[in-house]
Amino acid sequence: MDTRRNRPGAMPLQARPVHRDGPDAGARDARTGAVAAMSSCATKTGPARQMCYAQYGIAG
Fold first, then answer.
1. Is residue 50 within a helix (H) or strand (E), and if so which, with residue range?
2. CA 10 to CA 31: how far, in whole Å?
């Protein structure tokens, strides 16, 4: 097993952060121009927000 971090074609160790709070929370698809919808949990605050994300199995 090759454990070198910078070998060609290696996957990154950690994915880029996802900003769930922004108006364009999802990435824009360059081919179609479609934008992913913002999470319905993003409008909640405090414990309500944590409980909302927990329903979907998202820790944060």
1. helix 46-55
2. 26
Which range marks the domain in which residue 56 is found? 19-60
CA distances from 54 to 7, 34, 50 (A): 36, 27, 6
Query: Which tens digit of pLDDT belongs to each residue from 17-29?
Result: 666 655 554 555 6
- On whether residue 1 sits in a domain, the answer given is no
Residue type at position 41: C
Query: In 1-60, where does DSSP find H-type helix?
Result: 46-55
pTM: 0.37
